Amino acid sequence: MTTRHQVRGSYLLDSNILVWLDSGSSRLNDQIRHDLRYAEHRFLSAATAWELSLKQAAGKLTLGASISSMLAAFRLEELPVLIRHGERAATLPFHHSDPFDRIIVAQALEDSLILVTADHRLTDYNVPILLI
Question: Rounded to two decimals, what is the model's pTM?
Answer without folding.
Answer: 0.90
